[in-house]
Design goal:
It is a single chain. The chain has 288 residues and is of the alpha+beta class. The protein folds into 2 domains: 3-126 and 274-284, Roll (Diaminopimelate Epimerase, Chain A, domain 1); 132-266, Diaminopimelate Epimerase, Chain A, domain 1 (Roll), CATH 3.10.310. Helix content is 18%, strand content 43%. It has an 18-stranded mixed sheet that branches. Strand 6 and strand 7 form a beta hairpin. The chain is globular. It binds the ligand N[C@@H](CCC[C@H](N)C(=O)O)C(=O)O. Residues 15, 65, 67, 73, 76-79, 166, 199, 217-220, 223, 226-228 line the site of the ligand N[C@@H](CCC[C@H](N)C(=O)O)C(=O)O.
Length: 288
């Protein structure tokens, strides 16, 4: 018998996810196969992935994120802002929240509302990490991964890597166009140097307070925004002396504000919008 699942679609700067409230009820599907099917932009609803909201004993809720290809990630910055909005708008949480994620307990705060709904959210994303073990890279696990190199089709890329719970590789320089990032990003994502794969970002530092960037996300491809990617980029840029500890970051879907408090060990804060788009139901055969 097919089962019907209710979802709500939200996005942060165009990084869109389908949200499933799995705090009660069930049985729930194999989320990985389900995410692959429903995220498809032609044969499904269409999204960069799904967010599953589960009960937590230590926080308001537990957030799980599955990319459009069905792989599970540790964290999602834009998804977390939108989850905070989803909880606040329904009266399930206040302005200051605690959410359990694969990257630990994180703290969103609603900083602007309109008509009783959250419009702008600031998230304590926790501290960045720079060691190879944090990024899941081959090589000395204790060594920092700030100056790595990969070669694709004879072109050498210098990568500055950081983790926000999930792994990121930044290519600093003139910003690549979409086709170029898709070509090289997809190859770097799956380079043997990264057995867990990696999110890849083309980053142009405009001045010490401004960055422009574009994302190739692990398991999702080109996206309009990547919150953990923006946080990892600020961490890498400031740690290597390219920017100050506060930056305004222009991504394809809009602007995020990023601030690193007490570097190098303190947390990174991201501030930006979240929007609810619509709700619906999706029928899923139970024999897949
Ligand atoms: N878009 C997200 C990150 C989603 C997960 C990522 N693709 C991964 O596999 O780590 C964000 O806003 O952080």
């Amino acid at each position: 018998m097919p089962r019907t699942y209710h979802f709500t679609k939200l996005h942060g700067l165009g990084n869109d996810y389908l949200y499933f409230d799995a705090r009660e009820g069930g049985p729930w599907p194999d989320w990985s196969a389900f995410a692959r099917a429903i995220s498809d932009r032609h044969f499904g609803v269409g999204a960069d992935g799904i967010i599953v909201i589960e009960p937590s004993t230590t926080a308001e809720v537990r957030m799980r994120i599955f990319n459009a290809d069905g792989s599970e990630s540790e964290m999602c910055g834009n998804g977390l802002r939108a989850l905070a909005k989803w909880l606040y708008d329904r009266g399930w949480a206040g302005t200051r929240q605690l959410i359990e994620t694969g990257a630990g307990l994180l703290e969103p705060e609603i900083v602007e509302t309109e008509g009783g709904k959250a419009t702008r959210i600031r998230v304590n994303m926790g501290p960045p990490r720079f060691r190879r073990r944090d990024i899941g890279m081959l090589g000395d696990p204790d060594a920092e991964a700030l100056d790595e190199a990969v070669t694709v089709d004879g072109r050498r890329f210098s990568l500055t890597c950081a983790s926000m719970g999930n792994p990121h590789a930044m290519i600093f320089g003139p910003m690549m166009d979409e086709a170029t990032l898709a070509h090289y990003g997809s190859r770097i994502e799956t380079d043997p140097l990264f057995p867990r794969r990696v999110n890849v970002h083309s980053v142009e530092v405009l001045d010490p307070g401004h960055i422009r960037m574009r994302h190739w996300e692990r398991g999702a491809g080109l996206t309009l925004a990547c919150g953990t990617g923006v946080a990892a980029t600020l961490a890498a840029a400031h740690y290597t002396g390219r920017t100050g500890p506060r930056v305004e970051v222009e991504v394809p879907g809009g602007i995020l504000e990023a601030e690193w408090e007490n570097p190098p060990t303190g947390p990174i804060y991201l501030t930006g919008p979240a929007v609810e788009v619509f709700s619906g139901t999706y029928e899923w055969p139970d024999d897949v």
